[in-house]
Every structure is written in C-alpha cells, then in structure tokens.
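User: hey, got a sec? need GntR family transcriptional regulator folded
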Amino acid sequence: MNVKQSNLRSVRDQIYYFLMEDIMKFRLVPGTHISEKEISERYEVSRTPVREAFLQLSKEGLLEIYPQKGTRVSLIDLNLVEEARFMRENLEKAVAELACEEFSDEAMFELERNLKMQEMSIEQKNYESLFDLDEAFHTTIFEGCRKSNIWSVIQQMNVPFRRIRFLRLAADFNWNTIYQQHAAIAEAIKSKQPTEARRIAEEHLKLVIVDKEILIKEFPGYFKK
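Assistant: Yep! Here you go:
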C-alpha cells in the first residue's frame, strides 16, 4: 500500500493513523512484534516517518519499544483500564445529569440519529461501526452541554479502556445491552430526568467490570499479568 506523500508530517500522520486503527481494532493483536522495516515496506515509505509514528504510539501506550530488541504491540494493562473507567464513570454521570438541564435540540437530533445507526450496525453485525458510533454517542453528550474540553482530557487516559471496549464488541456479546443503555440515557436526557440519566450512565460504565473477567478467560495472552 502506498501512502500519499505530500510532506514528511503528512506521511507520519498517515502511518500513525493506520497503525493506531490496526492496534485499536485488533488487526494487530497485543504482543505482536512489528518493525520499522516491515512497516516502511508495507506502506512504501522511508523509515523516518515510521519511526516517528512508533514513538507517538509508544507515548500513547499502544507500542512498547525495546532498543536493540524490537517493538511489539503493548499488552492491555487492566490497572489503566480501571483508572480510565473510574474517571469516565464519575465524569459521565455528572455530564449526563447536566445534559438534562442544558442540551441543544441539535445535539438531541444527533444522539437519535446515532442510535438509529447503532441499530443498523447491530443488524449487520458490524462491530467496528458500532464501536465508532459508541465513541461518537458519548462525544455528543459532552459536546451537547459544552464540555468538549473535559472529553478531550478523558481521551488522554482513554486508550486502554477503548481497547477493552472494542474487544468486548468483537467478542460478540452485550451489543443489545449497550444499545438499550444508550437509548435509555438519551431518553432520560430528552425527558429531563437527571437522576435516571445518572443511574444509567453509571450502570453503562460498570459493564466493563463484568466483561473484563470474561475477556481475560477468552484472551489471556492479551493482558499484562
């Protein structure tokens, strides 16, 4: 595959995006060894942008670089997953409650449109699309009550949490539960029921606690011991 080579930064950004997507969506599974040579040949680019992309992915916890030994896709650290889940649970409960007081019609329209697309993804068994829609759903809630910067802060810790969420969807369970909780959150916001919105948001983020035990049994090699 040849990437569009307009400038070095553009090439690096493209390589970063391709690799990040491959890691987040488990096309490159945890523990997989990759090399600058392999990636530069795959995308027909020099090693410099590949090296820069590797360094960025390492900073974000997606790659582990061992000088003189090689690079591998990082294993999932469950301690980091729990920290991110704890932060998201407490912030999302508060934001769901706030959304019941101030949420634009445009944002509600976007939530409802998102839910229809989630239904389609479930019918089509398209878990990659459902994962992207899940992220967009939560983003819309934060943006709808003017808390976009808080969502940006969450993203700085969100990588391990997003990885386990995708794995959960790929494992083909809880799709309808996730959709039903999303729909209930949207309905609570629309009908201005802050207590209900807060309760469902908390339940929604606690799903990962149960699901991770199932995932550890099914994919033991994907997690740090």
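Quick note: The chain has a mean pLDDT of 92. Let me know if you need anything else on GntR family transcriptional regulator.
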